[in-house]
Amino acid sequence: MTLDVAAVRAAYPALADGYAYLDGAAGTQVPGSVIDAIGDAYRSGLGNAGGVFPASIRSSTVTAQCRQAVADLVGGVADGVILGPNMTTLTYRLAGTLARAWGPGDEVVVSRLDHDANVRPWVQAAARAGATVRWAEVELPAGELPAGQYDSLLSERTVLVAVTAASNVLGTRPDVAEITAKARAVGALSYVDGVHATPHGPTDVATLGADFYATSAYKWSGPHVGAVIADPGLLDSLHPDKLEPAPGTVPERFEQGTPPFADLAGVTAAVEHLASLAGSAAGTRRERVLASMTAAHEHEQALFQVLLDGLGAIDQVTLYGKAPRRTATAYFTVAGRTPAEVASHLADRQVNVWNGHNYAWELTGLLGIRDAGSAVRAGLVHYNDRFDVDRLLAAVAELAG
Ligand SMILES: Cc1ncc(COP(=O)(O)O)c(C=O)c1O
Predict the structure, then answer these.
(1) Which of 359, 362, 377, 381 to probe ligand 1 with, by most ligand atoms within 8 A of CB?
(2) Using CA of residue 70, residue 169, residue 347, residue 303, what is the dihedral sign?
(3) Is the CB–ligand 1 distance for residue 92 below 6 Å?
(4) Quick one: pLDDT band at residue 191, thresholds 50, 70, 90?
(5) What is the per-residue pLDDT for 2?
(6) Residue 172 CB less than 6 A away from ligand 1
(7) Ligand 1, closest atom to CA 216?
(8) pTM of the model
(9) Signed CA dihedral, 320, 367, 28, 84: sign only
(10) In this predicted structure, what is the pLDDT of residue 277?
(11) pLDDT at 1 exceeding the cut of 80
């Protein structure tokens, strides 16, 4: 199944502004259907959840629908979907909860490929518990996170392995299934950061072997809502801090305060949108999501090759990372220009890209570029087209020439 990119783009009102949106890795635009779902939720009347009147019941329904939608996107069951403001907040919450059982002698394994949101919460929780942190290293220049190293990193002392499903700057997709299998073999839990990976292809939490899988809807055409997906049985064994009158049920007891109900309706609409990308109405939503995300992956990878070839043909450009399995995310510098200058030049040409470390703190330090402004990130998502890529290449060539 292929993706009709013109039809996809037409669904996104913001894309009509003339800019090439190559900043999707920091947050995508949202389709009209998501904007409408949020507006419609407010228009229909929303009460706080737990009441007996229709507006309150609507909020509870919206929440239940959102959990099911997230479960359909990544695999898993609705009762295992924890919703929250973003991945960072949820990860801090889970790190604090899990670390209660840790003590001296326990070990936590993090990686230098990860966004800091899947590093620091674990490092800080381990320090408070007196546990030891061990680091999985990135192999340069490829930017790979070899799974084999986990054999010597893990032992019966390991309590948790935190690893990303894709680097948010290099795009590298480590062999998560192999890493989580090694973790399971020593009795450790795995926490997989799927924030960058989720929008770029089909996801199945069970195949990844992730005990916890974190994702953020604003990276996949939705509003600013985060989610962590886990087995409800596992969640049942954990007891986060919570208010006395707040629900003690799973997954609700992991959610603090009143959720943004209208945004949750937007998350469901975003999953519906992703399910429709390949244009088929046949099958369950989960089946349509898998078909659509496969089509999105193929579309992005074909365009990524054009982007990589084009940047590779410009002598002044240095590209970072070349893992064979990676998302369509280019991270590069231009000789004689700071990343901020490159991004400003591109902005003048109506091309949106990011410059800087993008919170890939350990990795940019390891690459030795962090102090010099790191690099420029141009990322592709399903709504980017050849014109976006050509504009970026022309603008970089102009700068280099
Ligand atoms: C790979 C990755 N992990 C985690 C995060 C943090 O996500 P959030 O903004 O939902 O806290 C990001 C955000 O850019 C990311 O790219």
Answers:
(1) 359
(2) negative
(3) no
(4) very high
(5) 83
(6) no
(7) 10
(8) 0.98
(9) positive
(10) 96
(11) no
